[in-house]
Amino acid sequence: MNLLLIEPQEMKNNEVWLTDRRARHLIHVLKVNTNDIVRVGVLHDRLGFGKVTAIEEEKLCLEVCLEQKPVIDLHIELILALPRPIMLQRILKQATVLGVRHFHLIRTRRVEKSFFQSPVLRPDKIQTLLKEGMEQAMDTWLPGVTLHLQFKPFVEDVLPSLEGQGLIAHPTARHTLLDAPAPNSSQKRLLLAIGPEGGWSDYEYQCFCEAGFFGLTMGKRILHVDTAVVTALAQVQLLYDLRKR
Amino acid sequence: MNLLLIEPQEMKNNEVWLTDRRARHLIHVLKVNTNDIVRVGVLHDRLGFGKVTAIEEEKLCLEVCLEQKPVIDLHIELILALPRPIMLQRILKQATVLGVRHFHLIRTRRVEKSFFQSPVLRPDKIQTLLKEGMEQAMDTWLPGVTLHLQFKPFVEDVLPSLEGQGLIAHPTARHTLLDAPAPNSSQKRLLLAIGPEGGWSDYEYQCFCEAGFFGLTMGKRILHVDTAVVTALAQVQLLYDLRKR
């Protein structure tokens, strides 16, 4: 936990009493004492510091000073064919660490129906994973997560309403990310689509292309979905940094 | 399993009988029939195809035709402060998928001593993970793995003998990968050093810098070690592709 996340309504006159796992983490893992300073962030708001002013058994009081606005540079929404639960957990957390702003979990032909029944998709479970990612990366932005149970309504109704240049990974695409029209300093919003373990069907890939998505190959090596997600996010970030220079 | 890996000594006149988990995978998971064709690669050698010529209960015969030489482009050796076992497993596999040629697992101040007792470090366990990575990425190169139990002898005796430009990730480094002197088409050998969860000590970082390593920051977000490894490998590959153009 590199950042202690606080909900806005928990603050009262710059003071917050913690009584849950955060208090226990501070007391038992970080072993803080009175007057110690910890990094603090308020959900969807600023970052700053908290001074420990009181410790009582399993609860703890912080005096909070917020100063630094969160930096939102690239705005990436990840469109992901719902992977198997264990992989989904890892991706939600890792992609949050890497700054994804919204997850669209979609149904495609090669997604197993049973994946949609997974307990990982329970809102409280998802929120825990996302918050762990935010605490790691020191980010106060809680990504959104939307589940789309059918492919066609997603492509026809939702996709046109999303803002940003679309990129879709597909092994037979002729171009690479280096040819992609975005990101750059005038187009910082991206929709990144990553298929299921068995790949997109031709029809699905076609639908994305018709919606203006740029198809790109990620090289000759076949990556697992979680590796593909981190690889694509890392490369998009590097390309953006390079084009910004 | 995108590639069936065969050891050179298993081949007899372009024929190979499989009796282990590979046979079971072909028969029960891929459900191959006689005359079916599968992608085949010989360890540290060429790739090609295998035609199923016989299936007998739990064993299976392939007629192998090898044609394609493996492409070795970037040669990356990963110097990794030994992470906790569960993370090590993931990194060995993912980094093999991404093409790492050699792993140097080293001891640093913030590596827990107990990690060196982990059963994950048993040679057969390591080899299974690496082979899974090769099967996924369709690569016939089995990466080497060396365990270095002490930091100083590694830095003083081993490091000078390794070939390639060194890059070391460190949060307070002033440069980013975009400023790094390699990779490029005349320097395709890289030594990439990634520290433990708590980071390198100042002394350790200094040792690498004195050995000619280029220090780079991976951005403001603090990444888990496994995410950092995949991110760094993905970005090095993109930068190489870009500079090659």
Automatic annotation (TrEMBL), chains A, B:
Stored Gene3D superfamilies: 3.40.1280.10
EC number(s) given by UniProt: 2.1.1.193
InterPro entries xrefs: Alpha/beta_knot_MTases, RsmE, RsmE_MTase_dom, RsmE_PUA-like, tRNA_m1G_MTases_N
Domain Ribosomal RNA small subunit methyltransferase E PUA-like, residue spans: 18-65
Top-level EC class: transferase
Gene Ontology molecular function: rRNA (uridine-N3-)-methyltransferase activity
Residues annotated as domain Ribosomal RNA small subunit methyltransferase E methyltransferase: 74-237
Subcellular location: Cytoplasm
This protein's GO CC annotations: cytoplasm
Chain's role: Specifically methylates the N3 position of the uracil ring of uridine 1498 (m3U1498) in 16S rRNA. Acts on the fully assembled 30S ribosomal subunit.
Family listed: Belongs to the RNA methyltransferase RsmE family.
Record protein name field: Ribosomal RNA small subunit methyltransferase E
Keywords: Cytoplasm, Methyltransferase, rRNA processing, S-adenosyl-L-methionine, Transferase
CDD domains the record matches: RsmE-like
Reaction equation(s) it catalyzes: uridine(1498) in 16S rRNA + S-adenosyl-L-methionine = N(3)-methyluridine(1498) in 16S rRNA + S-adenosyl-L-homocysteine + H(+)
One BP term from GO: rRNA base methylation
